Hints:
Oligomer: single chain
Radius of gyration: 15 Å
Helix content: 25-40%
Number of strands: 8
Order of helices and strands: EEHHHEEEEEHHEHH
Number of helices: 7
Number of domains: 1
Amino acid sequence: MAIQQGRRTDMDNDRLRNEIITDVLGAYRDLTKPDFSWVKPKYQSQPYKKDILNLIENGFSVYEETDLNEDVSVNLHVRKNEEHYVLKLSLVEKYAILLHANLQGFYHIISYDDIESSPVLKLLKKYLDREEIKLLDASIIELPIRIQLFNTEIEDTTFYNALFADEFAPGRTS
């Protein structure tokens, strides 16, 4: 996928959007009556164990905080050089988002511009690229997808909900 200076083109976004829809359908089988039986076995298979160990070997402090009642992702608190982020690694397929808390404790989704401003974020992005884990930003994860979940109304569901958690997406105002 051609990304110039960390940004995706509209064509890349369309291709990625279609890829995500295919992956979501492959995981859940049906968007009106999704099958969640795959979540726990996928989590227990530890698909990101090697990735977590590599982060630790590269000087990151890593703490996992995953709740399979809400999450369809492995949620990691990663720290290095006084910088703290939440890295969510989707169990649907190899997708990730990075979150950062502001001074009020509200999380926002890291943008491609944010990555350029931090050596730690650049290192995380380089690592994700090497492992072929697609880092998504708000322009993708806020796109709607009509999937029936437990906590989110179907008209409000987004790629964030389908790929990471059945909760209000970080940074989303409505």
